[in-house]
Amino acid sequence: MTISISSLGISDELSYLISIRDDNESSCLMNALKDMAFSDPLSGFGNESSMHSFLTERIFLSKQEGFSFHVICIFLSGIKEITAMFGKKTSDKFLHRFSRRLAKESSEERLFRIMEDVFIIAIDSGERYTVSSMVSSLVSSLERPVFIGDTEILPSVLIGVCQFPVDGESSDSLLSNCFSAAFNAKRKNLKWSFYC
After folding, report:
1. Cα dihedral 13, 43, 39, 20 in deg (nearest 10)
2. CATH for 48-194, options being 3.20.20.30, 3.40.366.10, 3.40.50.1000, 3.30.70.270
3. What's residue 42's pLDDT?
4. What is the arithmetic mean of pLDDT over 74-94?
5. Per-state percent for the chain, helix, strand, coil, to nearest 5
6. Is the bond preceding 165 in cis, omega lying within 30 degrees of 0?
């Protein structure tokens, strides 16, 4: 195996290019780097890059095969406050347990964590009734107390839901409209809302 490290003089910051040659070793390393580039280490879900890649592919397939899908955006309130009150370690444990709960409640779906307090679920169902029932159940489950040692933390969520293709035809527009739906729910003092 050959590893070449080169310094790049692109900016004031140090930047390096690593080149590895060996089919067996580089394949393992490439998979590990891909996992790092597309995974959120705390939740184990896909990250924002992974989400955009997934949605772009799903949109392409949906247009080809003529099916619809929903995107659910979950805002978890109070992460900064939890970190300030109990510290980063407790905050990370809380996020990890919250993520496990979310994974359990939506085991058949594709999950992403795109910001510290924003989670995305992509579901194949095109029926609003099915999605509505799922989201109502999610709110109840996700807002149950989380215990970390002797500390009880009460999660609070706000959810926006949008549907491809009626609420957007790109990953950016779907995400933007999910955010809008969540903020619309907040204005109406609701826990969740469809985009339209």
Report:
1. 70
2. 3.30.70.270
3. 83
4. 93
5. 45, 25, 25
6. yes
Residue carrying the six token digits 């930047």: 15
Q: Please state the pTM of the whole predicted model.
A: 0.79
191 vs 185: CA distance, rounded Å: 6
Do 182 and 192 touch, CB atoms closer than 8 A?
Answer: yes
CA angle 19, 37, 176 (to 5 degrees): 140
The tokens describing 93, both together, are 């444990």
Domain boundaries, given as residue ranges, for the chain = 2-38, 48-194
Q: Could you tell me the two tokens for 171?
A: 């990953």
User: 9-68: per-residue pLDDT in tens?
Assistant: 555 555 555 655 655 655 555 544 444 566 888 888 999 999 999 999 999 999 999 889
Residues 145, 182: Cα–Cα separation, whole Å: 22
Name 133's Cβ contacts closer than 8 Å, sequence gap at least 6. Answer: none
Dist CA 106 CA 101 (whole Å): 9
DSSP state of 170: S
The predicted-structure confidence for 64-81, as pLDDT tens digits, reads as follows 998 899 999 999 999 999
